[in-house]
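Following up on my earlier thread - several people asked me to post the actual chain instead of describing it. Fair enough. Here it is, all 368 residues.
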Amino acid sequence: MKMADEEAKTSAFTRNKLISFINAEFGDDVKQLARAKELLEKLSTEKDIIEEKLSLHVTAVDGDSSLRTTLQTAQEAHKQIDFLVLEEKEISGKTAEHVCKVQPVVEQFLQFSSKVQQLEKYTHYLTWILKIDEFSSSIRSALLIKTENRAVEHYVQLTTFSRILDSSSCRQLVIYANDTVLYWYKILLEKFGNEFDDVLKGFGWPFIASPDTKQQQTNKEQIADHLNDRLDVAFICLIRLQLPDALLTKEAISEIIPGWRPLPLPLQFLVKPLCRRFKYHFCSKKMTNNIKKPEWYMTQLLTWVRDHSSFLEERIQPLLDKAGFKYSTAVSEFTKGLLQLAIEKLAADLPKLGQDDVLFSHTVQILA
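Reply from S.P.:
Thanks for posting it. Predicted structure:
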């Protein structure tokens, strides 16, 4: 039934095609019918030529042989395609069957792979812990045999290690590294800080007494010659003994002055005794703590800078240069430490200064 319908559609298409062709050739002019015989002969000739070219059994000219070869090649290609399609279906079937067989093995392999990756993470984690412990052991050994420079060197390596770990998602490991850094920082700071304080006392630091006689100055210079080596070692060790930024306490970073960075540790020790004196005289209930006399504490700070500049330039600046702080000057760092005292004092007095215009203007004039 379906085949009959297709044949009917083909016949109707052919008939319509023929009608269109005749109308195109003859049109409405009856005289054109005389061309019917001529048209028939032309179409018969074209039909014979086409049949001759399509015949695969008749010897033909080179052009006809090329067409036959092309058709044969197409037929062979079609056969190959059919063969490949069948082969692809066969291979697909075998592949699907093989996948079903190996699926349990694949799942088991993935489980083993996951366990291996987990064990590798544990191994790396333990490796980091062992490395931290190795640094700790090296610092402890260096301190026992009194090789302070090596102890500081291992501490610097430990802080570098902790900075690398700071971005890790293993928070307990980060905490362990930071706690280890803080532990050794406190021990080394106490050791070298005490040594540095003792050396400074040997130099008579801070210089707050009345001017010495010539004989006293000569004696101090002779004493100082024996302290230079100790000063060198203690200073270099302290300046390398810096905490990573992530471990700096809020107290170490001034909230009053945005962007204020802590002084290098040796400069902090140089300023520390003067800080105690400043707070005793100008931040307590002493008579010198007079809000109406800001020139008192400003004059004192300027006097300290003047009295200590020579020592800072002659003995501290070379050590700063040696430590790689060539773009910092000892006097400027020392002054900055004292300046922080003035800023903190002013911040504490501001609420009262704001209530008295005359007093406020006087303070601004002194500080300007």
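The first helix runs from residue 2 to 26. That should answer part of your original question.
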